[in-house]
Structures are given as C-alpha cells and as structure tokens.
Write a structure and sequence with these properties.
Radius of gyration: 23 Å
Low-confidence stretches: 137-141
Order of helices and strands: HHHHHHHH
Largest sheet: none
Number of strands: 0
Helix content: over 70%
Mean pLDDT: 77
Structural class: mainly alpha
Distance between the termini: 30 Å
Number of helices: 8
Length: 141
C-alpha cells in the first residue's frame, strides 16, 4: 500500500502538458504510457523495486506460517535451522558454562554474508535510478 500511494502521488505530480503534447502528436493511451510516462518514471519504479526486493528477500515469517514442506523453505529459515542444528548438536555434551557462547560470531557473519550477497549483487545495477528515486520527494530550490 505504501508503494502504491507514493507512486500514485508521483504520477499525479507529472505535468499534464507532457501527456497533452503526446496526444496532439497523435499518441493514444498505450503509447503515452509506454513511451512517455514509464521512461520518465524509471527512477521511482527502480527505487521501489529495490525496496520491495529487499523487503521480500529478508522475509521469513510467512514461510514459518504457510510453508510446511521442508524443501520449499525460504533461505532465512534454512540458515536459522543450520544455526539451531549447530547449537543443538554441540550442546549435548557441553558443560553449562560453555553453552552460553555456543556458536561464534564467525558462523553468524557467514550467514549474514550468504543472505545479503544477492542483494549486494543487484544493487549496482539499480543504483543510478535509486539515487534519483530517493530525491523525488525532496524539496526543490
């Protein structure tokens, strides 16, 4: 809903003269949308595409609620189960004072790297649009 509201306001802020000039030149609704409006809107679309992708990539709660098949679990649930299995296997024969720091920060950081690598690889391709899209709501001088 947030993305739709911001994009709606962005499309409303586009000057009506652009659409009128395209109509005077003989463009119909589809041509105006594909050749005028969408190319102008690439920064805001790319920005929200990046926001949406990051949001869905990090989501695990819906997987916990709705996915019961182990082979269809999201990556975040798989990584959590790896961490939990490491802690459970190692905790069986450990004294209580060592159970506190069961798996080190290295395993946690490795999981973070695995989860963030796809987003880090996609970001450079949308960065030029991202900076323009972020500034859309800024005050202009």
């Amino acid at each position: 809903t947030f993305y739709m509201l911001v994009m709606r306001n962005y499309f409303r802020s586009l000057p009506a003269e652009i659409e009128e000039s395209a109509r005077i030149d003989g463009a119909n609704e589809i041509t105006v949308l594909w050749k005028i409006i969408l190319p102008i809107s690439l920064p805001v679309i790319a920005t929200f595409l990046l926001f949406f992708t990051v949001d869905r990539w990090g989501e695990w709660f819906n997987g916990v609620l709705f996915i019961k098949t182990m082979s269809k679990r999201p990556l975040q649930m798989v990584l959590r189960s790896i961490l939990m299995s490491l802690s459970n296997e190692a905790a069986v024969n450990m004294p209580p004072e060592l159970k506190k720091n069961l798996y080190g920060d290295s395993v946690k950081m490795a999981c973070v790297v695995v989860v963030m690598t796809p987003i880090m690889l996609a970001y450079p391709f949308v960065q030029k649009y991202f900076m323009k899209g972020i500034m859309i709501g800024a005050v202009k001088n």
